[in-house]
Amino acid sequence: VEVDAGADHGLGSIRLEVGQATTTIEVTAAPALLQTSSSQVSTAIKGEILQTLPSVLGNQGLDNLALLVPGVVSVRDQGFSNTNGGLGFSANGIRGRNNDQQIDGQNNNDNSVGGPYLFFTNPDFVQEYQIVTDNFGPEYGRNAGSVVNIVTKSGTNNWHGTVYGVESNSALNSLSSEQKAFQGLHKVPRFNDEFTGASIGGPLKPDKVFIFGGFDNEIRSEKSVYSSGNLTPTPAGLAQLALVPWVNANALHVLQTYGPYGIGGGNPVISGTPFMQPIANPNDPTPTAQIEMSGVQRELSTGFHQFDGLLRLDVNPSDNDRIYGRFLYQKLPFFNTDAFGTSLAAAGYPANVPGWSEDIGLSWTHTFTSRMVNEVRFSYGRLVAQFGGNSIGNTIPPMTALGSGLANVNLPTGYLDYGPSTSSPQGRIVNTYQTQDNWHYVFGHHQFKAGFNWTYQRSPNNFLPNYNGRFNFPSFSAYVANIPSSINITQGGPSLDFREAQIVLYVADHW
Fold first, then answer.
1. What is the pTM of this model?
2. What's the confidence (pLDDT) of residue 201?
3. Residues near 469 by beta carbon (within 8 Å), at least 6 away in sequence
4. Element (H or E) spanning 476, and its range?
5. Of 78, 114, 161, 253, most Cβ neighbours within 10 A?
6. 177 sits in which H/E element
7. Which residue from 441, 331, 323 is spatially nearest to 386, judged by alpha carbons?
8. Torsion over CA: 313, 310, 500, 145 (sign)
């Protein structure tokens, strides 16, 4: 009989009848295809499939396993949350942000965008990936989509270890259709993606004390081409603007210094075929000036350095007690990303996304009788996430210097905006403290459950949209004449010390 976390595989009613003294009685039974001892719909993926399935190897992400479960599909463009791999998933038609992420039954949710705050992606650290999709047990109540519980691996009575590595690079890849058709590339931009790791587990004292530990790192060094077809004056166009008498000198200076071709990082070049665009004086629209315009693209060094570590200790001090503690650590910085999805990286305003997470958990399970079991859990998790800074002169300042950023220049549709996004820089720290108790008692046909969940979060945030202001222009002519249609700026402090406490009690009887 397989044993899975949070799942009941009862054998049902088994009858043993008295026979003759000389009669041999053989009793066999197997779990039914349909669970009759629990209405909860859950799927556990473990063992060989967890270690060999191509979609999760090489740090690709464990949430790809959820797509193997009935009622679960890719979230496509409706996610907007963190994921443990892929684009994310939707359970039973409910958006991807409504999936509850847990590690060893404890909170692993980012309180800002949803999804996990610690990206648990290496299957070598995992004993079981479980997803509950319907008829949730009473202990689950945070989300309406699904509950994902990743059970960390523990040591056994035999020492066992693994060493592994995966390598991918630009010499082994070919150009994509998009790179050929829209970016005009003739070779793959340089990249090198190396993923290596090792783990070991075994007994410190046979049958009593076990240890498991592992470490991995993925270092991806590459260059990415950021391209936008929205129009901006080319270097020749900037020179032509300088000859137009009614162009505002301050507006031209800012465009020459901080505009898409004023930021030299990444060697901005013309994207597409440049053409002459007429612009008119807003105060006297009859004469026009012809200015060369085009899109822009630049090549920036991107990639990330990810480091993960796991240490778990299991202790069985008696036949009725099991205690374990574990520590998880992750460092995951991304460089020069287009984090806000507004083509600002092409304009010279990419953002670094440095972050790290850690999670500490402790559990004690005590078996009182063959009918009654109780488990108490404690955990502490910490997430540090930032959006700001870059490697081309900090055109977006780091989170700690939010007030030193430039204003955003918002041009009409078809023209390329520039300046940091009104939402950058920003950052948050999420501290999560959690205590749980789960009590289970079986009496006849009844299965009683009761417990509580106390969660406290303290989350200092550094974020205030439009803190550095935004200038809105109805036309490019209005911009070069320095006539904005509106200016947005937010007053107030950018720091928010968010705190929240939750207490949940539950009791249930299933028969």
1. 0.83
2. 97
3. 407, 408, 487, 488, 489
4. helix 476-480
5. 114
6. helix 177-181
7. 331
8. negative
